[in-house]
Amino acid sequence: MLDPQRRSVHRSMVVVGGGIAGISAAVEAAEAGYEVTIVERNPYLGGRVAQLNKYFPKLCAPTCGLEINFQRIKKNPRIRFLTMAEVESISGRPGEFDITVKQRPRYVNDRCTSCDACTEACTQTRPDAYNMGMGTTKAIYLPHAMAFPMKYVIDDNACRPEACGKCVNACKYGAIDLAMPARSIHLKAGAVIMATGWDPYDASRIDNLGFGHSPDIVTNIMMERLTAPNGPTGGHLVRPSDGRAVKRIAFVQCAGSRDALHLGYCSAICCMASLKQASYVIERFPDAEVTIFYIDLRAPGGYDAFSRKIQASGNVRLINGKVAKIVETAGDLVVEAEDIQAQAKRRVAVDMVVLASGMASALARGKPPANCAVDDDSFVVADGTMPGIFAAGCARSPGDVSAAVQDATAAVMQAIGAIQTAARG
Amino acid sequence: MTNKLGVYVCSGCGIGERLLAGSLTKIAKCEFAAPVAQSARAFCLEEAEWIRNDVGKGVVDSVVIAACSPRVNTDVFAFPGATVERVNIREQVAWSHPAGDPEAQAMAEDHLRMGIARAAKRKAPAPYTEANERRVLVVGGGIAGLNAALHAAAAGFEVVLVEREARLGGAVARLKSQYPTRPPYQAPEKTKIDRLIEQVEASTRILVYTGAQVARVAGQPGRFNVTVTRNGKPAELVVGAIVLATGWKPPDKARLDAYGYGRIANVVTSLELEEMAAKGPVRRPSDGRPAKTVALISVDSAADEKQIPHAGNVESLVALKQAIDLRADDPERQVYVAYRYMHTPGQNEYFYKAAQQDPGIFLARTAERAVSEDKNGRVLVELDSTPLGGRQQIAVDLVVVGTGMEPASPAVEGLHLDYLQGEGMPVNRFGCADSNFICFPYETRRTGIYAAGCVRKAMDIAESTRDGTAAALKAIQCIELSSAGAAVHPRVGDLAYPEILTRHCTQCWRCTEECPFGAIEVNAATRTPEVNPNRCRRCGTCLGACPVQVISFPDYSVNMLSAMVHAAALPMGDGAGPRVLVLACENDAYPAIDMAGINRANLPGSVRIVPVRCLGSVNRAVVAEAVIAGYDAVALMGCRSGEDYQCHFIHGSEVLNTRMDNIREVIDRMALGPERVQYLEVAISEAAKIPGMLNDVLEKARAFGASPLRFAAE
Fold first, then answer.
1. pTM, whole model, 2 decimals?
2. Which of A396, B97, B144, B386 gives the lowest tally of CB atoms within 10 Å of its CB?
3. How close A331 gets to chain B, by Cα (Å)?
4. ipTM of this predicted complex?
């Protein structure tokens, strides 16, 4: 029954994206006996969750689950992964897909032992993308301490190979190849899982919220980095502008979401994320004043208990209304909003503002590679997609980690069904 | 059996600059008579070939590599035909100590001795491959169960589907429509439940039992023995894995009294409205007259936290859908939707906007829900909504209570497990099957049994469809792994399982109680514990629990940990430096220590770090032996326990903490200072705290004074 040898059906899958959905899909498929290749754009696996400080509602470290998943990948010979790689085209049919992948050069090969001698030698720096541009790394760098694979990488926007080459000399293992070319890779697979994930919506496009005008107006994902123990401040929550403690903070919900000018949909996780981030502030400053400006406080999927727990902390004030503008006066940021319930205007002075910027589908970056039907917001539409190609996680719909894992597991089952059906002819 | 030991000491990555590799190979040769002991600049590169050759030639069958952390280069350091033991002298020694620190050399040497001791105790596992049944049992024929059955069948597996009711379809079959699942997300859609039922009934791989219930489940993944009763007659089945998809129900009538349900005729539940609407125009139940005005009110979970489960987005979206359906049913009808928060995540927002566009739908955010009745059979609803003009009362023909969804209790319904730990699935505080629900939502505490759909949490049709599909994958995966005798999550592929030396067992049955997965039963004839290998997740909690140390894995045991404890060469006599044994959970604490090394933090050189599978696997004997051996302190590092536990084995730190009193008592009785044993809670992300924590342990150890046992030996 499980012999897909009739016709040249591939008993394998390609997973596009190595975030939590993609990783989960890969391990679930491999542990059910299927070969998998993950194609990941970043130099490391883990995607957005690798940048988070904690998960709601358990307030636990994302690296805890990632560690287990990485161990599962390391121990399973059925899983292969390509980093710095993007899918260019997908053609074929269930059981017989051809996938073309373009891999950017890492300039560091598999001989890298991650000894760190290269960064000591390197003289160039680059903005630290893992920390959302807050802080810098050397041009040759390990993306972060838990990066998997634990291999260094060179940012070719920052490196000056013609003038330097110090890292090449510093490396005792011959791991650095400044002439490494981009590669084109052809993969064959029985099914494809799109787990392309999300990007934070570009907050600078929301004119009234002042992102970019004050360093103390940050996005929610920047807030994750500013509180993470491995972030640019070592987890000390301070104002980016002057390093002062953050005692008064405002969260602006729907920064881009539920807004016809930006993202028409609800990004699903931002209310919970802001409540979680409120707990970061209170944990550090027990007398902190937290104000959350919201339209509807959304706790989908049974997170109501967590929502109420944070609200009950005594530090959190909820104001029902959309923020009109944020202005800087005398070192303070003043958030102006209409309080719908009180039918009054509010002006709240704070030290720092966190914009709950929404989730944009990563497929909005360009044209989706496959015959992969997407809606107006670039999310994959289940029924319109080519048979044998399945979407999981935020490629399908904005959602949290648990939903992404659920989706990924379901997508693998569908992929197996497609492969087995193709094998039966 | 003696091992043919090969010790390979790497000097790459700065190890050679910090440590004397030659002294390490000398220890291997002189102290352990290793036939092969070599060092090289980087064993992960070309020199890996040396190891491969030694193994290939049969010179070595027990490879010990002193180099980087076992967390890296797992694939490079795999040599078929040999066991591989990794000794961490890079992250936890060379990278976390300043150059020229003599304590670092001593630490590396002890880590090597401990690794060799561990390798010597490692036995090849003999996997249990006796349970090979490939059939999947799906309990519950609603939307989740139907999808589970259909997808398992599509993957080529035989399925038995058991449904309590006379027909398939569950709650979804009672609905008029569902809210939209595809662009432009504007209008309700027909459910596809009839088509799904047809497909299931037509499948040659699916055997459907309607009007049937599961009376008993015994056995283990790969071979569950199941009794199904139908029309009072029992039938026996054997299956490999189970999907539990028993769905949900509305709360009891009595709990909806505050909303008028049960005491006012024209108050119905949301599910009852669906059934009415599916049959034709919606009318007042009291007199059959048209319902010209309808109020949809959702239960206020804030007021009813203890009583009524909240269904979040499902409740909000069902109310919106019903409002739109009610308007389509009678365009003259006015519909009020009273809500506290409108949960319409993702693309559902567009559906919310569609409802907002309808002039006949009044959306009111309100905390008030008081419901009464007037003399004309009209229902009066109190609202308090400032934007709608403050406190007011509306009179409507019909009130629909969005009830929330209560999971069919996995603790009492559905399976009737014939397990010593009880017949239900262990549940979390929400009454749903317990799991690490963020990262690993399907990994319940009953291996091989996967909850799906609303028994797992409140979810809508689209999500239940995915959930049932996903649970089917877990079921077939479990069947594949179990038939090979391999563990499922999180130690996937582990072939070893615990063996119990029953003739020395005192029959206290502590192991049967502490096993987080109910893997150990009591043999009816001998009264001794008996492991079901395929239920076991290989955490070692049983061997940690056993007061007489008779439980062990072939590759992990009290004996092995004790050997490691004793392998370290503790300095003796006056002026000898302190020594602290760190037993670190390999899932969180151990990686955190690695991360401290990667960040080049300084760790005290007097610690000796031993990874353990879980703190639950730490037996008091190991701790006592360490104290008796002369360690000044023992630090047990694990993760957070309690309601938001992180343990991948559910309660490792918790059971360890219950053992702590006992451990301290043992040590106190020997007058060695019970404070020498310390529990430290650390998250994987807390690498920065590690040096401080270890230094603190060291300070405390100094405060107790050096262990007398290291003077007594002089």
1. 0.96
2. B386
3. 32
4. 0.96
